[in-house]
Specification:
By secondary structure, the protein is mainly alpha-helical. It has 4 domains: about 45 residues, no CATH class; about 70 residues; about 90 residues, no CATH class; about 70 residues. The strands form 2 sheets. It has a two-stranded antiparallel sheet with strand order 1-2. The chain has a two-stranded antiparallel sheet with strand order 3-4. The longest helix is centred in the N-terminal third of the chain and has 19 residues. The protein is globular.
Length: about 325
């Protein structure tokens, strides 16, 4: 490679649109030099007038956990980066650390807040996955199992999907399914999850009861047991009606007691603990659920910002 070639922006980078070409790739073409000079001049000016605010940075671990969940679902980190409009190299460093001879492989502890927000906004949306791609069967299995809790047999599920009668049973034994199968089961589930099969005859009633008893023996969960049926590690053990809010249960859970909360109660508890300044891991520890569940509810349902520092009750009380 000649000296001239060394100072040309790589073809896969936006020429002079960001500082990467100059700072990371050593490009010294006229456009990159002009951009770099302008940036440095404006930076010095902002600092001189006291108007410079360093870019906000947030803990990187919640983003890594989210990317791991997306990968398990079938959306690889590179794909998530492109969807979010974040550099692939940035995401690879976030997940794997720096690569190359002599590079520090330690995972970054913090990440630019805007990039974190965009990556966390990427959802486990099956529409983003190609029909033939293999995805985790977890969500598909849970949907078939939840339908069994309602009394829908695997035979009837297969029939409504237009599949061989044994397909639903095969899905329950598989580690992965195609994205197309996942979508078809999800669509059927959206129609049937809150409906009971016909019980006009004694035979139909007996069949529904038999299927429900089988689901109970296997410990299968109903649809409302999940906050996110595709990503939750474990179900929320719901023993009361979904819309029945028990204030005393919420108070006990906030205090760290191992109380089973309904989805509605969990959301109230998360709102209150977040308002008290607790981080996602601290809230998860109090409520005995996963950090990812707290992250999803806090950010994607309520749009609440991440609490960046560990909660200190003494400091909080003094501030109050």
């Amino acid at each position: 490679m000649t000296t001239t070639e060394k100072h040309v922006c790589p073809p896969d980078h936006r020429h002079a649109e960001t500082g990467n070409c100059h700072s990371k790739h050593g490009c010294r073409c006229a456009a990159c030099l002009a951009r770099h000079s302008t940036y440095q001049r404006e930076l010095r000016k902002r600092k001189a007038y006291g108007r410079y605010t360093p870019p906000a940075r947030v803990p990187a671990e919640p983003v890594r956990e989210h990317l791991a969940a997306l990968k398990a679902f079938g959306i690889a980190p590179d794909r998530a980066a492109r969807i979010a409009g974040v550099g692939v190299i940035t995401v690879r460093r976030l997940v794997f650390g720096r690569t190359g001879r002599g590079a520090d492989r330690a995972l970054p502890e913090r990440l630019d807040a805007d990039r974190a927000r965009r990556l966390l906004a990427v959802r486990a949306d099956i529409s983003l996955v190609a029909d033939a791609a293999l995805v985790s069967s977890r969500g598909t299995q849970r949907r078939i199992q939840a339908l069994a809790v309602q009394g829908w047999s695997q035979l009837e599920v297969s029939r409504r999907l237009g599949m061989d009668r044994s397909n639903a049973n095969k899905i329950l034994a598989a580690d992965h399914v195609t994205a197309l199968t996942h979508r078809r089961v999800a669509d059927l589930f959206d129609v049937l999850w809150d409906k009971t099969p016909p019980q006009h005859t004694a035979e139909q009633s007996a069949s529904v009861q038999r299927i429900r008893e089988r689901a109970k023996r296997h410990g299968w969960q109903p649809a409302l047991a999940w906050d996110d049926i595709d990503l939750d590690v474990a179900p929320a053990r719901v023993e009361r009606a979904n819309d029945d809010v028990d204030d005393s249960a919420i108070e006990l859970a906030i205090a760290g007691e191992g109380v089973d909360l309904t989805p509605a109660e969990r959301r109230i508890a998360i709102r209150r603990l977040h308002a008290d300044g607790l981080t996602d891991p601290e809230i998860a520890s109090r409520l005995h659920c996963s950090d990812r569940t707290v992250l999803r509810i806090r950010l994607h349902e309520f749009g609440l910002p991440h609490n960046d520092t560990l909660h200190n009750p003494t400091t909080a009380n003094q501030a109050a």
